[in-house]
């Protein structure tokens, strides 16, 4: 298929990457000669203290989390996920993909994050906490006192405020669950891609769920419109939020500690390749920013999207960012990976973070679903399809990322983004379908390197 620009949208339809994307084919684009992380971060229009301040905020609220959410008490109220080696999955995929991946494969298991079970807890929780602090300050309460948010006075105040967000599912869960726990009213505008069980779970927490027949962008727009001009209402803008971004970035500080505890070095001689599922881009963008702050040029981040919803790679490749949609290529934007069902990328992440992104990959729904089967069969881990988007990408990308990366001294990290909250019946269906699709997992994609 040949992509043709829609009226008002200009791009090169003969670009080989664009042609592959338009065909819905698995696509790999590796970017060479990127500027150094130090240079990019120095010139970036992002407050250099944003990550550290977010980390401090999470620390301040840790006693409150330990009190309100008993599942976090063992970690003293720190909401964090395990880092685990995936030797069995690596051996299985070596055989299935016909190539031995040098170095070691690890999983960052955000599917197991306490409370809401997805990477979205990182950004979503942070923005809700930041808003809670602002409400406390505006009403003469001490935001640094862990007891403040547990007090009857705060809950009475919070009940007069509303937090609004648009979501395909997991961000809505994190925002809704935490808002309700703090006493805020919450409204989650959900797109047609959202799973029914996610809506039901939110309603069980007293959250107002507003359903939309349109896609993610439509749900976000509706949420924004409902919040405009409304008193004591805070809109969480997944398309352009610095607070979400800050929360996601803290993951890098936690990951550094986890690798150190596991005696895994990350430096020029021991490069780290991180494969991050990408929807609108806020989660992987914030994590990438943090990783580059922590590890510099020793880390290489690859964003992974469904082949029918390659919003971020399309925006970056054309330079049009949020002014172009996958619909402009004739793609549906529809995918089994509901958390990645985004047709238009973040207004913020593409223009600001793209110089830090080493590569992009798209994968078919069948491969994403088959990844669920791989993790179930080899590691005993059951996740939702969105979580496995990056699972096969190290085999496709790492040999082209630069000198020394395709070596036994490298570390490959696949970010597993969600799944713990999935109901047992749905989880079983994902596993059954994933096991049936295992023969399809060997997906061909010749990387474009430029």
UniProtKB/TrEMBL annotation:
Xref: PROSITE patterns: DEHYDRATASE_SER_THR
Cofactor(s) demanded: pyridoxal 5'-phosphate
Limits of the Tryptophan synthase beta chain-like PALP domain: 95-404
EC class: lyase
E.C. numbers: 4.3.1.18
Modified-residue entries (N6-(pyridoxal phosphate)lysine), positions: 120
Catalytic activity: D-serine = pyruvate + NH4(+)
One Pfam family of this chain: PALP
Single annotated GO MF: D-serine ammonia-lyase activity
Keyword Plastid annotated: no
HAMAP family: D_Ser_dehydrat (MF_01030)
Family: Belongs to the serine/threonine dehydratase family. DsdA subfamily.
Official protein name in the record: Probable D-serine dehydratase
UniProt source species: Brevibacterium marinum
Organism lineage string: Bacteria, Bacillati, Actinomycetota, Actinomycetes, Micrococcales
Gene that produces this protein: dsdA
């Amino acid at each position: 298929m040949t992509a043709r620009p829609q009226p008002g949208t200009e791009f090169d339809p003969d670009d080989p990457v664009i042609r592959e994307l338009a065909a819905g084919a698995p696509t790999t684009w590796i970017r060479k000669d990127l500027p150094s992380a130090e240079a990019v971060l120095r010139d970036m229009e992002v407050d250099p203290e944003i990550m550290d301040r977010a980390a401090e905020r999470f620390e301040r609220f840790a006693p409150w989390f330990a009190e309100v959410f008993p599942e976090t008490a063992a970690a003293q109220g720190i909401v964090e996920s395990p880092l685990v080696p995936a030797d069995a999955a690596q051996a299985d995929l070596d055989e299935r993909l016909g190539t031995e991946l040098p170095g070691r494969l690890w999983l960052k298991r955000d599917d197991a994050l306490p409370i809401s079970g997805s990477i979205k807890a990182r950004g979503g929780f942070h923005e809700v906490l930041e808003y809670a602090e602002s409400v406390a300050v505006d009403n003469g309460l001490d935001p640094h006192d862990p007891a403040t948010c547990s007090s009857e006075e705060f809950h009475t105040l919070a009940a007069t405020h509303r937090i609004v967000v648009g979501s395909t599912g997991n961000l809505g869960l994190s925002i809704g669950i935490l808002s309700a726990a703090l006493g805020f009213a919450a409204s989650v505008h959900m797109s047609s891609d959202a799973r029914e069980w996610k809506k039901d779970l939110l309603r069980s927490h007293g959250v107002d769920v507003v359903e939309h027949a349109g896609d993610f962008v439509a749900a976000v727009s509706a949420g924004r419109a409902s919040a405009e001009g409304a008193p004591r209402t805070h809109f969480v803008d997944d398309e352009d939020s610095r607070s979400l971004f800050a929360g996601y970035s803290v993951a890098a500080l936690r990951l550094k500690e986890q690798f150190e505890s596991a005696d895994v070095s990350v430096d020029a001689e021991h490069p780290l390749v991180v494969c991050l599922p990408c929807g609108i881009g806020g989660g992987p963008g914030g994590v990438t920013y943090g990783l580059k702050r922590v590890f510099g040029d020793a880390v290489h981040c690859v964003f992974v999207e469904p082949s029918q919803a390659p919003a971020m790679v399309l925006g970056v490749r054309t330079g049009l960012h949020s002014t172009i949609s996958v619909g402009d290529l004739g793609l549906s934007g529809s995918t089994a990976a509901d958390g990645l069902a985004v047709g238009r990328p973040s207004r913020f992440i593409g223009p600001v973070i793209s110089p830090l992104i080493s590569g992009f990959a798209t994968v078919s729904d069948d491969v994403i679903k088959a990844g669920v089967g791989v993790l179930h069969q080899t590691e005993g881990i059951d996740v939702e399809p969105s979580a496995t988007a990056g699972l096969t990408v190290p085999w496709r990308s790492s040999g082209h990322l630069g000198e020394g990366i395709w070596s036994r001294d490298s570390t490959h990290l696949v970010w597993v983004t969600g799944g713990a909250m999935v109901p047992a019946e749905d989880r079983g269906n994902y596993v059954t379908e994933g096991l049936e699709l295992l023969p399809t997992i060997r997906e061909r994609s010749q990387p474009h390197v430029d």
